[in-house]
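Rotation project, supervised by the postdoc (A.L.). Task for the rotation student: set up a whole-complex structure prediction and record inputs and outputs verbatim in this book. Inputs entered:
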Amino acid sequence: MRRALAVLLLSLPALAAAALSDEQQARYDALIRELRCLVCQNETIADSTAPLAADLRQQVEAQIAAGRSDAEIKRYLTDRYGDFVLYRPPFKAKTWLLWGGPFVVLLFALIVALRFARARKVAAPAAVDREALQRLLAEEYRREPKPDVESR
Amino acid sequence: MRLRYVVPALVLVGLVVLFAAGLKRDPREVPSPLIGKPAPAFSLAVLGHPEQPYTIADLKGRAVLVNFFASWCAACRVEHPFLMRLAGQGVEIIGIDYKDSDADGAAWLARHGNPYRTVVADPQGAMGLDWGVYGAPETYVLDAAGTIVYKQIGPLGEEVWRDKVAPLLGAGP
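Outputs recorded:
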C-alpha cells in the first residue's frame, strides 16, 4: 500500500509532463532555466518554488505544447514583465551599458595599464653596455684609486 | 605625474555616485513594460456573482484604480486603510481578488471593510499574469481610454498618491 502510494507520487511529475514530446521537454527544460522568477529575482523559474514561478512554468509548458516557438514564448513574457524576466536580456538602447559596460571598463583598465607601463619604462635605466661601463670604471680607478685599496 | 592621483580619485567619485544612486532604487520593483499601453483584455466575473461577467470594457470611460489584493496578502492589510480613505473621497477603485478563493476574499472584505466599487475574482491569477502582476498588492492607474498610466508595486500610500498618482489624474479627488 505504502509502496504503491510512493510509486504513484513519484510518477506524478512524469504524468504532468507527459503532454510534451522528448524534444519539447528538452526545450522546456532549457527555457525555464533562462527565465527569471520575479518574486525571488535571483532564481530561475526552474529553481524557484514561488507560486508565480509555478504559474510561469505552467505557461511555458502549455505554450510549448501548443506549438509556439521559444522566441514567441519569451516575447509573451517580456510583453508582460519586461526584459527583466530574461536571464540574457537582448542588446538594445536600454541595455547597451549592461552588455558594453564590462568592455568599457576593460578598455579603460588597459589604457591605464599601458600608460603605467610606459611611465615605468622611461624611469628605468637605459640598457647597459657592460663593456663601456667596465672601461669607465677602470678609468675612474686609475685616476683616483680608492684610499682603502691603496692602504693595503 | 599628477594624473596618477587624479584618475583613481575620479574613478572613486564616479563609483560613489553610481552606488549612492543604486542604493536609492528598489530592486524588487520591476518596471512594467505596460505603462503607456492599453490595459490587457480579460474576462472574469464579479466576486460572489459568477453569472455577472466583468471585462476590460467595464474599465473604460473614466479614470480608475485597479488594485490587485488577496486575503493571504499581509501588505494588503497595510494598504487597506488608505484605500478606504480614497474610496471615501470618491476615488473609484476596482479590486481584483488575486489568486484567492472567493470565500476567503469575501470574508476578508467583510471583516476589514470594502473600499472597492466592484470586486472581481481572479482565482487562477490569469488576469494577473496578463497584466504582469508578480505579487500583491499592485495597483494600476488607468485613464478614461483604458491606458495604463502608472503602476504601483507594493502598498499604495499617501506619499505615492500625492507625488505620482494624483497629478496623473489631473488634480482629481
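Student's summary: Chain A has a mean pLDDT of 82.
Supervisor addendum: The radius of gyration of chain A is 35 Å.
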